[in-house]
Predict the 3D structure of the following.
Amino acid sequence: MLEWECLFSGSSFEELVEADEPRVVADQDHDGCMVFALSDRLLSALRAAGEPEISEVAGLWSQLRERDGEAIGVDLAGEIPGDLTRLARVAEGQAGGVYCWVA
């Protein structure tokens, strides 16, 4: 989530840490899983993103993951942010947030 926010919004990692992002909704006390809320800044950036920006972010994100030893194909790297932008738009229409569950 931090990588996506940096890539979509132009925020630095340090700015996000100072802003206490992402906000923890449920910590590891709940079955060893954590739930984070996507920030308003990230949700706004996702909702505003067009196909060219999503493709650009997908390529950059794929490169970041590859540098960390996690190979994500360009197709999958494009699907995830694309799906996330659609989810952010649906949540806006329902006046809801978007959350990320991590096991």
